[in-house]
Design brief:
The complex is a heterotetramer, with 2 copies of chain A (130 residues) and 2 copies of chain B (204 residues).
Chain A lengths: L6 E7 L2 H14 L5 E5 L10 H10 L5 E6 L2 H13 L5 E4 L3 H13 L4 H10 L6
Parallel strand pairs in A: 1-2, 1-3, 3-4
Helix pairs in contact in A: 1-4, 4-5
Chain B lengths: L2 H17 L1 H11 L4 H18 L5 H15 L4 H15 L8 H19 L9 H10 L7 H14 L23 H21 L1
Helix pairs in contact in B: 1-3, 1-9, 2-3, 2-9, 3-4, 4-5, 5-6, 6-7, 7-8, 7-9, 8-9
Classes of the chains: A alpha/beta (130), B mainly alpha (204).
Chain lengths: 130, 204, 130, 204
């Protein structure tokens, strides 16, 4: 029923459980969209690791566009470093609220929207409450 | 500074940061999440472990390695910031075996540029940049005055106490961030103080 | 250094790991603020359970004001049911983005802000990216 | 409807929802997260398990118990919505042993009010309310016409196919939600069809 979609979502958090929990929640909303997650440091401490971000990225087909969601600022800086290291890939970082924007993103990505559309919808199309 | 002095500098910085781990975390407890000491300790431990393996590297490559190690290991905002700074110094020092007056100036101003880009920040935002930037300016074309450099770092660090933090976690505190020294500024001060110590020891 | 604060934060998610990961991330930002979490169903499935929300609420001193954050709409409906069942308590539900608003909330709650102030800051004081 | 008939209705509904578990989840896969069948099955299983324990309850208390069980067990949006509906019916039927024409009308209109409040929704939003609301209106002061009620439920369900969903997860699809029957409307149709079946069997 879903159109083929070419945007994968990557969730980068300071806490592994948070990233993985987000993935689990959003994957349920559409099992066909590629959703990846990484979080925490090797030693289980709170933080983000570019090695883990890269490892997640390497799981995604290199032709697939990637929209990255992050929890707080330093995760974004690390995501930007990985983005710069992979200029050959189409990676975009979203400033949308990670869970709420991510939910919109999985829906629109599932409808076959482009990376730019998914990013815009995640940042603007999010609504909560009434 | 040659590659051996650079290694000495890094070793001394690592020891210094380990000593002050709790102090840095306590400072970060007031403005952030209380992990800056642990983060810097983790990062520089990994650098020191790397030094033994990176035996035959040029000064430039060494700086690059230090930078990427810090990015990988620090875990907090300080990781990409310090990491970018070292990588930019490495890039500026391509083909240079001995950093002298103008190379220092060039390397540090590239580092400052890198931090400003990475952190989307500028001086006065109450971050480590408020140490790095005056330090970069204290390097002139001539041979460095290490006392000047150390005091530029010190003054830069102290100045963050009166600043409203504009970047990083401390920014959420707004006016309430005034009255606290920025932890990243303090770790940067230690870094440059150990640089001065190392270089002054070499001069004797 | 922190003033006494009288606002606890409760994170309600469809996924236990997500709620608990959020708690872990935010608790680091201020270990002195009361942060509670619940998520998922008894059988580990994705969903929210009023029993779990109530159990979390019961861990919080009954004099303490509670600000509830939720992930998606049905979690809010369940939180509202619990809120109605406990009219004797001061429980308010926030429509702020759960992670980003929660981060602001832990900071302002730690500074001694009132429930209304914490709610407002979480919903309006949140900024991401630049 | 007396308390025994209510129990019969709930048992039949539970069996019906179990039979259609996959169908309901598939419908929810198009508009939501694909769990509506599992959710309703879980909730009504718990209700049926409860029926054995709730032996001596009045009709009103039974409805309240059903409601709180659904709220506790369903896990998704349908939980607080169906739960509120049953609790409101229970409240409306305080002291009533046998639900007749006007009590039906009163109970169902309170249920509809509850769903609308809980879901912050109104008819036309493409939800289960689009079944509950016409069903409530099909109850008149006189004795219910179960055929009318069943057909009101059926038409309400069918009508959701052409609606742009305004509430719940499906709302994110915007115009793309048109062309799909709402899963909550379908489960509600089964509920009312089994009500009609139960009551018609009792009339014979
Ligand atoms: N955007 C930024 N620009 C410049 N410096 C920053 C920025 N964000 C954080 N910092 C610096 O990083 C320090 C905090 O580092 P650390 O505690 O290791 O990271 P985190 O805040 O992720 O826990 C701050 O004291 C500040 O000097
Ligand atoms: N705000 C609402 N108002 C009315 N009905 C709603 C609302 N949100 C969801 N629904 C109903 O709930 C159904 C979905 O239930 P379910 O799948 O069990 O929950 P969830 O969406 O949490 O997974 C929808 O088909 C719709 O009929
Ligand atoms: Mg920190
Ligand atoms: Mg940190
Ligand atoms: Mg569902
Ligand atoms: Mg669900």
């Amino acid at each position: 029923m879903m159109e083929e979609n070419n945007v994968a979502l990557l969730f980068v958090s300071h806490v592994e459980a948070l990233a993985e929990g987000a993935r689990e929640l959003l994957q349920q909303a559409n099992p066909d969209v590629g959703i990846y997650s990484c979080g925490g440091l090797e030693d289980g401490e709170i933080g983000t690791s570019i090695d883990r971000i890269e490892a997640s990225l390497n799981k995604i087909d290199s032709e697939t566009d990637v929209l990255v969601f992050y929890d707080i600022g330093s995760a974004k800086m690390n995501a930007e470093m990985v983005q710069e290291m992979h200029e050959e890939r189409n990676i975009v970082i979203s400033d949308a609220p990670m869970i709420e924007g991510g939910y919109v993103a999985v829906i629109t990505a599932g409808l076959g929207a482009s990376l730019e559309e998914v990013k815009r919808d995640a940042e603007e199309g999010y609504s909560k409450g009434e | 500074m040659n590659v051996e002095q650079a290694k000495q500098w890094l070793r001394q910085t690592s020891a210094r940061l380990s000593e002050h781990k709790d102090e840095l975390s306590t400072l970060d407890h007031a403005l952030g999440d209380g992990d800056h000491g642990v983060n810097m300790h983790r990062g520089f431990q990994a650098v020191v472990e790397g030094l033994d393996e990176w035996e035959d590297l040029s000064l430039s490559s060494l700086m690059q390695k230090v930078g990427s190690t810090l990015v990988s290991k620090v875990g907090g905002a300080a990781g990409p910031l310090y990491g970018t700074a070292f990588m930019r110094m490495g890039a500026a020092w391509k083909g240079i075996e001995q950093v002298n007056g103008s190379a220092w100036s060039e390397g540090l101003s590239k580092a400052v540029e890198g931090i400003a880009q990475r952190g989307k920040t500028s001086t006065g935002d109450g971050t480590l940049l408020d140490v790095w930037s005056p330090v970069a300016e204290a390097f002139t074309e001539g041979e460095p005055s290490w006392d000047n450099i150390e005091s530029a770092a010190y003054k830069g660090m102290e100045a963050t106490e009166e600043m409203v933090v504009k970047k990083g976690r401390g920014a959420l505190l707004g006016e309430q961030s005034v009255g606290h020294i920025d932890p990243g500024a303090v770790s940067s001060y230690y870094l440059f103080q150990e640089l001065a110590n190392t270089m002054k020891a070499g001069e004797q």
